[in-house]
Amino acid sequence: EDDAPRDCSAKRQRSDAKAPLTLPVTPSRYDAPFPFYRRPAQLGHFSLDAQRCYHGDARRLRYYAPPPVEGPSPGFDLRDGYRDRYVKQDETVREGLEHLLRWITQNRKQLQTEDKGRPLNADFVTWRGHLTKVLTTPYENQDGWLLAVSLFRGTLYISEVETEAARRQREQRTDLLKELMYMGYKFEQYMCSDTPDGTPDPTGVVNTNEAFCIVIRTRLGTHSLLFSGEVDCTDPRSPWPDPPSCYVELKTSKVMHSPAQRKSFYRHKMIKWWAQSFLPGVSRIVAGYRGPDGSIVELETFETMKIFQLIREDPGCWKPAVCMNFCAAFLGFVKKVVTEDNPKLVHLFAWEPGHPVSFTVHRDSEHTFLPDWYVEVLSN
Ligand code: A3P
Ligand code: MG
Ligand code: MG
Q1: ipTM value of the model?
Q2: What is the DSSP letter of 174?
Q3: 183 C-alpha to center of ligand 1: Å?
């Protein structure tokens, strides 16, 4: 009886050596040279229509159509239409990986390998937005995350679970915040047209169900990745005409009046913009700066690959290499922990600011996220 606890701790130590129980997030731990990141290749695309229905084509692709001269005051009113021309996506519907999985089943041939037991040639399948959250983790001090992981036929699937805090925030959003969210989409409408040579139509409805998503294949260190992400538009006159570098990410932010405000913007906001666009190889981010009345007072273009030059003068700023090294470490951690190939088994990786990443194991069906139809199609 006396031996039991000792036995138990010895066992835990043995399994610690194989798979650690937590992963640290401290930036200094990941302050090493930039890891290998293969140039992202676009494998395909799909669209989500006004009713949020999937289509395996580019019908929702829009074209970058900025006002004639980039400079001050294009005069866009981002509040226009908020009350009467806004169709909002139903955020209570949990889509999970469903649209991406549908694309995968419809494009299986180009993802196949020689290995019959592994139908997909990828270590990880996920949304770009989930990876963005992982990348920014070492510098995040507000929002935690929950990522569900299942290993199925040799591929690890990562799907986000909404945290309690995020659900509360979503349900208690102020009207001001709701309008600010609308304004981000309204900016897209002012900057995009439906045809390569068209002009934007700001009289239309803003419908946030609509999306054009690209599917990307790349490699981070030893991890091959397949992920999908929504892109705002393509520039038919891009200096880099091939996808995915032809896409332009549109963003809005409060107009800045001082170097201190710009420094804070680089530290806290630019990290998210950079991570979101760097992952899929989107080469440009166009910022619209909004004044207190909700109008755009200025536009500024950022080249994704040059953002590190803007921030490296500030020693207190985030480092791209830390973000990427942490992401590689997290994926390695997931590979070590999740080793049982079973689509019903879920490991829930959890992170809260100030803590390391930890996980829990769920054998019940409560957290299972790979749909039966997908498991069936990929089992044959
Ligand atoms: P901004 O980009 O101007 O902030 P995206 O930029 O990723 O294409 O998203 C378009 C808009 O959706 C954003 O505009 C913002 O208004 C809204 N949005 C996206 N993610 C959000 C989030 N996590 N919380 C609140 N709003 C979000
Ligand atoms: Mg977008
Ligand atoms: Mg955008």
Answers
A1: 0.96
A2: -
A3: 9
